[in-house]
Structure formats: C-alpha cells, structure tokens
Amino acid sequence: MRGWLVSELGAPRDVLTLADVPDPTPGPGQVVVRVLATPANFPDVLMCRGEYQVKPDLPFTPGVEVCGEVVALGEGVGPDGPAVGDRVVGGTVLPRGGFAELAVMDVASTFPAPDALDDAQASSLFIGYQTGWFGLHRRAALREGETLLVHAAAGGVGSAAIQLGKAAGARVIGVVGGPAKAEVARTLGADVVVDRHTEDFVEVVKAETGGRGADVVYDPVGGETYRRSTKCIAFEGRIVVVGFAGGEIQAPALGHALVKNYSVLGLHWGLYQRMDPAAVRRCHDDLVRLAAEGVVAPLVSERLALTAVADGIQRLADGDTVGRVAYVADA
User: Where would I find the Enoyl reductase (ER) domain in this sequence (predicted)?
Assistant: First the structure.
C-alpha cells in the first residue's frame, strides 16, 4: 500500500515522504481499516516536529483519527465489536496512522460512523468535537444563556466549539484572523465575530456583555491570547485551556484568578479514553444524535488526494486553513 512516512523530524513539508509500505496486520484487540478519510490535526504537525507529548518511533505514518471500512480483525475482537465491512470512526494506532491507504485502530477507540455525515465529515467528528464536548460540558459546565468566547473560531477545534456552544444554547463570540475566516465563523453560527487583525476582542466582549465579560473562554491558542482573555472573563467565569497553537505555553497569573474569581481549567481529552472510556462512548452517542438532528456538521473546507497530504498538513501548521482539511480516498 501507499502511505506517508516521517523518517526524520522537522516541518511537515520537509519530512513527509509518500512511499510504498507493507500492509499493516491487526494486533490483539485491533482492526485494520481501509481509509476512507483522515483529517489533518495540529497533533500531526507537532509529531512531525517532535514537539508532541506522543513521540512515535521513526518512521511513522501520521493521521490520528480516521473514518474507514473494517477489512481485518485482530485476535480477541468479539461479536460485540466491529465486523468486517463496518464503516467506523475513531483514533488510529501509531505508527500506522491514517494518512495511508490502510490504518490500524484499537477496538476501544473505534465507533460506528454516523450515517448523517459523509466520510470526510465523519472522520472529523472524533477528536475536535469530543474535545469541544468535554471542554464545554464536562469541564466548563456551559449553561444555556451564557456567553462563550471561542478563539481560532474558524479552525477545526474552534469551529466545533461554535456549533456545540450554539447547541447548548449559549451566545457565541468567535475570534478569527481575517475577513475570510470571519465569514466562516458567521456561517458556523457565531452570534458575534471579531477579526483580531482589526479589532480588540477584549473590548468587543465587554461591549457585547454590558461589561460582565464571557462566562466561558475556549482557548486552543494560548500565550498572549490567554492573557488577554483574563481581561474579559466574567465573575465565576471559566477559561478552558485546550492547547497552545500560538506556540507559547503561558504561566497563568493565579493571583489574578483569585482576585477576579475565575477558574482555569485544563483539558487533555486523551486522558478520558483511559480514565473514563464510558464517558467517551456517551459523548460519541450524543454527537451522533446532534449530527442526525443537523445541529453539528464538521466543516471540511478541503478534500485532498493522498498525494496532496504533505502540503495540506504544512498549510495547517502555517495557519492558512479554515475548518478541516482532510485526505479523502476518492478525492
């Protein structure tokens, strides 16, 4: 089969090579899938650079989530698990990730694909939407009528947070960079959109909330974006730290959190797969229901052929994409 390999660490465009590689074999409790679609995620960028907390041995194939058709079952996959021919979504088992014609999945993180979504959309429902669901509901306890501030609102993680926030009955303010991304955020359902290139989101949030501030901040950027968010967080507000796409891991000023009475909540979604797998399955079921109702639908802005994957991952790294960029087998 063909697949992308990272044999040395660096910028995705420099280190990804499309090669002929052996077909994978499922281990115990695993399945092999024919890849139907794989979206690019920021962890794929970080793994290419060697900057992610998960560091697979070289060489490896990136692509941390996938929609695929089951073609082989490993030992111990029983009648309650996936069957050959099933269309499934979930996480991949590195080093045999999703940017290839075949990938490996653990049964524990393999779920039925939602019928309401096509392959590219279904592949994008797992990490970004599960992260949003746990961040907004489990960590921040977002309530109907509250104000939700979403940073990087036109990206894969932010776009999911907009839709999930609206589904929860929140008023959503999205922060983006540039007019094209602003239009995407409006299309996704954001009530107010801030172009950070021309507007100060702190002042906009204060004006839109009568000086109260945002009840929940969803921050996948970090650094100065986080620090500025503390200037417009409401009394008893919650800042959900999702990631550091801006490149700086900030040091929270805990004295400021004390005097303003807000919470800083870390979110490592991957831990839930180990610590509370039943909750991950409940989350998936809820997301499938929301997709069937037409409330959430991942925005896939680009559907790439296998040969275009390295360029797509690099453009994600450069911040030049909106929504999700996905490899699709029939593109």
Answer: 11-327
